[in-house]
Amino acid sequence: MKKRAKPARAESPANQLAGFIAKFDPPMAKRIRSARLAVRKRFPTAIEMVYDNYNFLAIGFSASERASDSIVSLAANAKGVGLCFIYGARLPDPHKILLGGGNQTRFIRLESAATLAKPEVEALLRTAVAQAKSPLPATGRGYTVIKSVSAKQRPRRLAS
Questions:
Q1: What angle (nearest 5°) sits at the alpha carbon of residue 42, between those of residues 41 and 43?
Q2: pTM strictly above 0.85
Q3: How many domains does the chain have?
Q4: Which pLDDT value is given to residue 159?
């Protein structure tokens, strides 16, 4: 009787995400991890949806597993990390810190996770939560879902 090989165990979303972040230069990887931790702390009940796409590693924070329910996302490439407000075009921006000119999304560049604690950024986050199509759960704990991984990607490290 032949022995069957055991099926490979699927890698956990946390380990997969750690691998995606490890593709970046160490200082950028550190910035991504600290920004993610800060946003996760801010939205503990949100579902993290991870997209390791061609241009960016994107981590969306959402009330459901639907991208349209996302409130914000972190988008990282070799040059930096941004906090994207999915419906940012609708947000009041009295300090003129939001960048981008599309019909829907706006973003800010994160020099560090400390940027998230600035009063003007906190105000945008509060307003984005208040305007969200689907409210975040009041209790419970969010989880991480790997939504897509592109086979072909731009380099995650700057050329030396």
A1: 90
A2: yes
A3: 1
A4: 79
